[in-house]
Design goal:
The chain contains nine helices and seven strands. It has helices spanning 18-24, 36-64, 80-85, 112-121, 133-139, 159-178, 187-204, 230-239, 269-276, and strands at residues 69-71, 77-79, 97-100, 128-132, 146-147, 150-157, 224-227. The strands form three sheets. A three-stranded antiparallel sheet has the order 4-6-5. A two-stranded antiparallel ribbon has the order 1-2. β1 and β2 form a beta hairpin. α6 crosses α7 (187-204). The longest helix has 29 residues, at 36-64. The termini are far apart. Bound molecules: 2-acetamido-2-deoxy-beta-D-glucopyranose.
Length: 282
């Protein structure tokens, strides 16, 4: 029986038996026998040569696109084009690092004082960025309040940093409760944070099944999942930094006081100095 898929025929080579007769009956395709070798051999050489040229061109084009291979921890590799498709819209992040869930760690240990110390260290202050109106339009973001040091930029709060800030607010609330201290966070703010985190959990709808413990009441420890690189998000936020720190304003101080904390190498350091005089840069 004919093993070739329907609609395909071998281009050259041995065609035997019935196949040959069938071909020979296609009169319009027949080459007169007298010219057989004289025409077919140069034609064969031409076809082979063109095929190689085509393959070479395809290979070069492919190389120009440089599909770097990314290897996952499970050993599977994906081409860069597949990764590019999954890049986040703003900082261009991909889920390219494998991180296991932990059970016990700095934020969950027997010594509560140490846990609280870890929460005090959590810093979300890099998360306020200033983005140009051009970029904002290109990405379809809503317009935002003006950045004091460049009127063509709006001020935005990067969501992951907002979430981190919210976690810290809730941790502080719990800490105060546990240590029987007066609450330092505004309760309405804490409720807003609880709701903000809830909305993101629902939005993410993370479908990863966590393994469950047989002897211990645990789920997930040691289990890897693909994460985005927090360091890269932080670098992006710093690159676009709005020089902002969420300081508590003193009586009579204006909100612009919050915009004088430029990171090193910021293009706005000079403007801040000009505006505030010497006490500006810190
Ligand atoms: C808990 O940690 C704090 C701060 O590091 C330390 O001073 C304290 O001695 C620790 N408590 C215990 C019971 O280990």
């Amino acid at each position: 029986m004919d093993q070739t898929p329907q609609g395909y025929r071998p281009l050259l080579g041995s065609i035997e038996g019935d196949e040959e007769k069938e071909q020979c009956s296609n009169h319009h395709l027949l080459v007169p026998r007298v010219y057989g070798f004289a025409i077919l051999f140069p034609a064969f050489v031409l076809v082979v040569s063109l095929s190689f040229n085509f393959l070479l061109a395809a290979k070069l084009l492919d190389l120009a696109k440089s599909p770097k291979n990314y290897v996952n921890t499970d050993g599977r590799s994906r081409t860069e084009s597949q990764v590019v498709d999954q890049r986040t819209k703003y900082a261009g992040l991909t889920r390219d690092i494998a991180v296991p869930w932990t059970w016990h760690g700095p934020f969950f240990q027997h010594n509560e004082t140490r846990i609280f110390e870890k929460w005090v260290e959590v810093d979300s202050s890099d998360g306020i960025v200033a983005l140009t109106d051009t970029y904002v339009q290109e990405k379809g973001l809503p317009a935002s309040q003006r950045f004091p040091w460049d009127a063509a930029k709006g001020v935005y709060l990067v969501n992951a940093f907002h979430n981190l800030h919210c976690l810290k607010v809730l941790a502080t609330t719990l800490m105060n409760y546990r240590l029987k201290q007066p609450q330092t966070e505004d309760f309405e703010h804490a409720l807003h944070c609880l709701d903000a985190l809830r909305q993101d959990v629902v939005c993410d709808a993370d479908d990863t099944p966590r393994w469950t413990g047989f002897a211990e009441m645990v789920s997930g420890p040691g289990q890897f999942r693909q994460c985005k690189d927090w360091g890269r998000l932080q670098a992006w936020a710093r690159q676009n930094n709005a020089c902002h720190r969420h300081i508590k304003l003193k009586e009579g101080e204006e909100a612009i006081e919050m915009y004088k904390y430029c990171p090193e190498g910021s293009p706005y350091t000079e403007k801040v100095k000009e505006y505030f005089g010497d006490q500006g840069s810190e």
